[in-house]
Amino acid sequence: MSDIKTGFTGELEDKTTVAANVKRATAAVQREAGAVVATVQDHRTATGSVLLLVGAAAFLAGYMLGAGQDRDTRHSRFWR
Fold it and tell me: For residue 69, is pLDDT > 80?
């Protein structure tokens, strides 16, 4: 009988276990994060503009939600 691992330097991957699926998902997330970082480094101005627009939209959405709240509370009666 011959040894199957002779000359093989890696690990055999078991694709049926939860640990193997988590390992593959972690590797995929790391690859995607690396791609995002590379894109950000290549396009710094565009990234800054997008972050500014997202921040402004989030501020505006929060302001609109806060302004639309019902102001009939005990705290607001004291400050009118």
Answer: no
Return all residues near 13 (Cβ < 8 A) that are at least 6 apart: 20
pTM: 0.51
Q: In the 3-class helix/strand/coil scheme, how is the chain assigned residue by residue?
A: CCCCCCCCCCCCCCCCCHHHHHHHHHHHHHHHHHHHHHHHHHCHHHHHHHHHHHHHHHHHHHHHHHHCCCCCCHHHHHCC
Q: What is the pLDDT of residues 6-45, one digit of tens each?
A: 666 666 665 678 888 899 999 999 999 999 999 999 999 9
